[in-house]
């Protein structure tokens, strides 16, 4: 049998300050990155308003970010 060698080096995870919209309701944990939020600032899970805040999150690379 053949077992592939796993790469011993893990990719570096880059943490950056990211603007997110978080649900203002204390009973809801909903949030989303600003890049993926619609202009409708309502929580999709509970219907409360979303407020802008900054969190330290892993950087993600999407095709959407390259069109900005």
UniProtKB/TrEMBL annotation:
Pfam families associated with the record: YdjO (PF14169)
InterPro entries to which the protein is assigned, alphabetical: YdjO
Highest taxon of the lineage: Bacteria
Protein name: Cold-shock protein
Species annotation: Peribacillus asahii
Taxonomic lineage: Bacteria, Bacillati, Bacillota, Bacilli, Bacillales
């Amino acid at each position: 049998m053949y077992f592939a060698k796993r790469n011993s080096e893990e990719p570096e995870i880059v943490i950056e300050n990211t603007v997110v919209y978080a649900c203002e309701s204390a009973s809801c944990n909903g949030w989303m990155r600003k890049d993926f939020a619609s202009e409708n600032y309502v929580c999709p899970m509970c219907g409360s308003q979303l407020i802008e805040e900054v969190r330290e999150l892993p950087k993600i690379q999407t095709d959407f970010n390259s069109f900005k």
